[in-house]
């Protein structure tokens, strides 16, 4: 909606331009009329459309042609005033004023014109028969009003129509010659229909019509009013109503009827509620709300309500209920967009089914990726889908959560984020692309079917960390060592991939780590890709394992996507865990039986430790059970067998006197202490070797 309206009155001398303005202001005919009235401003609270209105007069006696041209270019609507009792002033409308206005305005954005026949009190006949051919000839003429400044006839109506011609112009909506709506208007109303069709059945039922009415006009339709509307459509269109609901053809017919009956403000109210401007384009403020600000070191994510909305959109278009969007269903989903937002690379960025269709998980993942990488683009997409309207929110900015500064997460050693970025580095041919595609469940055979031009440098899917679903975003960094940007370096975890079968591959990873990440707090993991091939000795000063030990990194993780089934995803869970808990130094994430962690695990699981633990538990539980049921001591062993089914319960050689003796419990406590001290000492000894 415009902030104000500027009305310019032009015409031949002595046709009553100034009298009309003064009669409007004073509500009486002036006895003395100056050559030209000063510009007046009508406040918004006294105008029907609640918009400030400026009224400007023109006087040939006081103004030059240059000043007139300037006023024409600034005007939003021009009223050409003629005297109904003066044929010469009527002829001047077409011979002088309309050509002059067209010469001083842009052809692509004509200023609406109102023809004003003043001094109707001086004649008994109407000038409409003369004016109607003129109106049909010039499409920029909105309407014609006959009035009288002397008896105040139609004065308020004149300026109301002038204001309405600016705020609710007919030109962008309707073509009088063809007597139908213009293509841009049909396109906009079609999008509005599809957004309002919540179940995507091609019909607006009573509930959807009521929601539409409440959204646009803040008031629902009563049942009788709904039936009256549908009856009007039924009488004029065969297929306008189907299954007691309004079809797209019926919806478009209704708005054509509104415009033809002079109620185009109804159509404009609908269009503006759904974000359209005067040119029937979605307004920039609607698509890109200014309320969202993202500070440095913060990321953007979709909140719970946004995911629920996107889920409803998916369900709305997944007509065959196979939890995947076929190309036809995806095209139907994006039919409310002015362009197709997702290209073929999206199918290689998120999870798809065996037919290559984007699954429900992949659909949400792509939205998560867009929100993380380009939140403004996400806001634009949500605007096309009508998020603020369907969710009854002020704007789609409420769908976005801005996470707190990453430095605060590191200080508090916890995070509320659900999306973590992993930048994948590696030399050419090291297996980075295969590593990304394996995250989407694709083995080498399936990866070979993907064309090179449709490959993506991103892959996103979910991983579970301690029972929580998180999104892991993998980004393949172009292997140009000297031109790494801040975006390439900004991430939650670094993945360094080298080809285990190529002796020269590891050197690149080592150089990247030492130059960019060795002195940072960003966790790093080394991936030995193509582990199914013969391992080659890396031509570097240190072996990959020694390099990782030196820099306190987890040992290299063997990985291959050359599998019969989908590749194992354990490594991605490890990456997500490290990204989620960067403060925790996870020294080992393997079962190599060579490192300190594995030696300790083997010691804890040894038969000696398990026997000692079982005897200790047996003694403690024996005393507890004896205190509870001293008369049923014969069932002690069977009870322990139920409590400790995984431990073979040894024959008890402990008497009741021993169990009641403080000396016995002192020995138990001492044994537990010795066990703890020995375990800790062994851990320290093995740690020094590391």
Automatic annotation (TrEMBL):
<dbReference type="InterPro" id="IPR018247">
    <property type="entry name" value="EF_Hand_1_Ca_BS"/>
</dbReference>
<comment type="function">
    <text>Atypical mitochondrial nucleoside-triphosphatase (NTPase) involved in mitochondrial trafficking. Probably involved in control of anterograde transport of mitochondria and their subcellular distribution. Can hydrolyze GTP, ATP and UTP.</text>
</comment>
<dbReference type="InterPro" id="IPR020860">
    <property type="entry name" value="MIRO_dom"/>
</dbReference>
<keyword id="KW-0378">Hydrolase</keyword>
<dbReference type="InterPro" id="IPR052266">
    <property type="entry name" value="Miro-EF-hand_domain"/>
</dbReference>
<dbReference type="InterPro" id="IPR011992">
    <property type="entry name" value="EF-hand-dom_pair"/>
</dbReference>
<keyword id="KW-1133">Transmembrane helix</keyword>
<dbReference type="InterPro" id="IPR013567">
    <property type="entry name" value="EF_hand_assoc_2"/>
</dbReference>
<dbReference type="GO" id="GO:0007005">
    <property type="term" value="P:mitochondrion organization"/>
</dbReference>
<protein>
    <recommendedName>
        <fullName>Mitochondrial Rho GTPase</fullName>
        <ecNumber>3.6.5.-</ecNumber>
    </recommendedName>
</protein>
<dbReference type="InterPro" id="IPR001806">
    <property type="entry name" value="Small_GTPase"/>
</dbReference>
<dbReference type="InterPro" id="IPR013566">
    <property type="entry name" value="EF_hand_assoc_1"/>
</dbReference>
<keyword id="KW-1000">Mitochondrion outer membrane</keyword>
<dbReference type="Pfam" id="PF08355">
    <property type="entry name" value="EF_assoc_1"/>
</dbReference>
<dbReference type="Pfam" id="PF08356">
    <property type="entry name" value="EF_assoc_2"/>
</dbReference>
<dbReference type="GO" id="GO:0003924">
    <property type="term" value="F:GTPase activity"/>
</dbReference>
<feature type="domain" description="Miro">
    <location>
        <begin position="2"/>
        <end position="168"/>
    </location>
</feature>
<feature type="transmembrane region" description="Helical">
    <location>
        <begin position="664"/>
        <end position="686"/>
    </location>
</feature>
<dbReference type="InterPro" id="IPR005225">
    <property type="entry name" value="Small_GTP-bd"/>
</dbReference>
<keyword id="KW-0479">Metal-binding</keyword>
<dbReference type="Pfam" id="PF00071">
    <property type="entry name" value="Ras"/>
</dbReference>
<comment type="similarity">
    <text>Belongs to the mitochondrial Rho GTPase family.</text>
</comment>
<dbReference type="GO" id="GO:0005509">
    <property type="term" value="F:calcium ion binding"/>
</dbReference>
<keyword id="KW-0342">GTP-binding</keyword>
<keyword id="KW-0472">Membrane</keyword>
<dbReference type="GO" id="GO:0005741">
    <property type="term" value="C:mitochondrial outer membrane"/>
</dbReference>
<keyword id="KW-0106">Calcium</keyword>
<feature type="domain" description="EF-hand">
    <location>
        <begin position="305"/>
        <end position="340"/>
    </location>
</feature>
<dbReference type="InterPro" id="IPR002048">
    <property type="entry name" value="EF_hand_dom"/>
</dbReference>
<keyword id="KW-0547">Nucleotide-binding</keyword>
<keyword id="KW-0677">Repeat</keyword>
<dbReference type="GO" id="GO:0005525">
    <property type="term" value="F:GTP binding"/>
</dbReference>
<dbReference type="InterPro" id="IPR021181">
    <property type="entry name" value="Miro"/>
</dbReference>
<keyword id="KW-0496">Mitochondrion</keyword>
<dbReference type="InterPro" id="IPR027417">
    <property type="entry name" value="P-loop_NTPase"/>
</dbReference>
<feature type="domain" description="Miro">
    <location>
        <begin position="417"/>
        <end position="581"/>
    </location>
</feature>
<keyword id="KW-0812">Transmembrane</keyword>
């Amino acid at each position: 909606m415009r902030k104000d309206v500027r009305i310019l009155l032009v015409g031949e001398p002595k046709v009553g331009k100034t009298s009309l303005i003064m009669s409007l202001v004073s509500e009486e005919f002036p006895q003395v009329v100056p050559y030209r009235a000063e510009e007046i401003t009508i406040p918004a609270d006294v105008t029907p459309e609640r918009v400030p209105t400026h009224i400007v007069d023109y006087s040939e006696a006081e103004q030059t042609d240059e000043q007139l041209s300037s006023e024409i270019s600034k005007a939003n609507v021009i009223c050409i005033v003629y005297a109904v009792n003066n044929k010469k002033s009527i002829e001047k409308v077409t011979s002088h004023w309309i050509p002059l206005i067209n010469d001083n305005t842009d052809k692509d954005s004509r200023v609406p014109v109102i023809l004003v026949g003043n001094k109707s009190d001086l004649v008994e006949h109407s000038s409409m028969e003369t004016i109607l051919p003129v109106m049909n000839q010039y499409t920029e003429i909105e309407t014609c009003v006959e009035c009288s400044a002397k008896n105040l006839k139609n004065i308020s109506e004149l300026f109301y129509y002038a204001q309405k011609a600016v705020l609710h112009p007919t030109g962008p909506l309707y073509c009088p010659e063809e007597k139908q709506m213009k293509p841009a208007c049909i396109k906009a109303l079609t999008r509005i229909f599809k957004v309002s069709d919540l179940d995507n059945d091609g019909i607006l039922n009573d509930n959807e019509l009521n929601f539409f009415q409440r959204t646009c006009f803040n008031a629902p339709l009563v049942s009788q009013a709904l039936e009256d509307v549908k009856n009007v459509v039924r009488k004029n269109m065969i297929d306008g109503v189907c299954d007691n609901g309004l079809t797209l053809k019926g919806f478009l017919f209704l708005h054509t009827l509104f415009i033809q009956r002079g109620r185009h403000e109804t159509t404009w109210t609908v269009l503006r509620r759904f974000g359209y401007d005067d040119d029937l384009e979605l307004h920039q403020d609607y698509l890109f709300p200014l309320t969202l600000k993202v500070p440095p070191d913060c990321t953007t994510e979709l909140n719970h309500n946004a995911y629920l909305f996107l889920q409803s959109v998916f369900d709305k278009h997944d007509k065959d209920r196979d939890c995947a969007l076929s190309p036809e269903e995806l095209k139907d989903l994006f039919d409310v967009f002015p362009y197709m937002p997702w290209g073929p690379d999206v199918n290689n960025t998120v999870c798809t089914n065996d037919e290559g269709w984007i699954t429900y998980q992949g659909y949400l993942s792509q939205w998560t990726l867009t929100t993380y990488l380009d939140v403004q683009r996400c806001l634009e997409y949500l605007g096309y889908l009508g998020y603020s309207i369907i969710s009854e929110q002020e704007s789609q900015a409420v769908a976005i959560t801005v996470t707190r500064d990453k430095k605060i997460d590191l200080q508090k050693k916890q995070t509320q984020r659900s999306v973590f970025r992993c930048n994948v580095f590696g030399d050419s041919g090291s297996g980075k692309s295969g590593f990304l595609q394996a995250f989407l469940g694709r083995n080498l055979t399936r990866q070979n079917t993907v064309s090179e031009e449709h490959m993506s440098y991103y892959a996103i899917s979910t991983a579970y960390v301690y029972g929580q679903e998180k999104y892991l975003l993998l980004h393949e960094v172009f292997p140009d060592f000297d031109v790494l940007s801040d975006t390439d370096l900004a991430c939650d975890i670094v993945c360094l991939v080298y080809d285990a079968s190529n002796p020269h591959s590891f050197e690149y990873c080592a150089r990247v780590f030492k130059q960019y990440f060795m002195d940072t707090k960003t966790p790093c993991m080394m991936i030995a890709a193509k582990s199914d091939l013969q391992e080659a000795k890396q031509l570097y000063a240190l072996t990959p394992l020694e390099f990782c030990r030196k820099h306190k990194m987890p040992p290299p993780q063997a990985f291959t996507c050359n599998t019969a089934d989908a590749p194992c995803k354990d490594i991605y869970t490890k990456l997500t865990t490290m990204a989620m808990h960067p403060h925790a130094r996870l020294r080992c994430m393997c079962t190599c039986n060579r490192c300190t962690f594995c030696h300790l695990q083997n010691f804890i699981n040894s038969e000696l430790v398990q026997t000692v633990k079982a005897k200790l538990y047996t003694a403690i539980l024996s005393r507890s059970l004896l205190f509870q049921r001293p008369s049923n001591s014969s069932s002690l062993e069977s009870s322990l067998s139920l409590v400790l089914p995984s431990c073979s319960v040894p024959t008890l050689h402990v008497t009741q006197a021993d169990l009641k003796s403080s000396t016995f419990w002192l020995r138990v406590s001492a044994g537990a202490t010795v066990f703890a001290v020995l375990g800790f000492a062994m851990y320290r000894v093995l740690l020094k070797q590391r």
